[in-house]
Amino acid sequence: MDDELQRIREKKLEELKRGLGGQQEKPAGKPAARVMVLDERQFPLAVRDHPFLVVDLWAPWCGPCRMVGPVIEELAAEFAGRISFAKLNTDENQRLAMRYGITAIPTIMLFLQGKLVEKVVGAYPKPLLRDRILRAFDMTG
Asked: Catalytic annotation on 62?
């Protein structure tokens, strides 16, 4: 028993020395996926600075929005380095939601080179949302 504990301690110490903290290393070469959290001040900068931008408009009380959140995170991981993803809470950013005519959430807005090219209203499953994004950004071929 003591030998087994010692081996576990040595393994953990080695992981800590390598800076892993016991977690798996991320595959090299693929950028880390991150879904940005935007507000009214950051939104125009994100639209300007990200040529392919997907913005998830949501609110904490919205059940379908909670279903879309993980889909957005998975797509952000899948398209890391090619398409940027962001979330914008419509309760906290009502003026922006009004400016874009958001009457229902979840709504996904797709911006190509700074221009709104499509709005996807509703909770779509991942394959359908992926297809809408690829078509809007002309990445199907």
From this structure: yes
The catalytically annotated residue of 65, 96, 109, 133 is 65
Q: Can you list the positions of beta strands (E) in 5-93?
A: 35-38, 52-58, 84-89
pTM for this predicted structure: 0.76
List, in order, residues 6 or more apart from 117 with CB less than 8 Å away. Answer: 110, 111, 136, 137
Sheet order of strands, 107-112 included: 35-38, 84-89, 52-58, 107-112, 115-121
Strands 115-121 and 107-112: antiparallel
Band of pLDDT at residue 130, cut at 50, 70 and 90 = very high
Q: For residue 118, which phi and psi values (nearest 5 degrees)?
A: -165, 150
CATH code for the domain in which residue 63 is found: 3.40.30.10
Residues composing the chain: 141
Number of domains in the chain: 1
Q: Residues 38, 53, 62, 71: which is the catalytic one?
A: 62
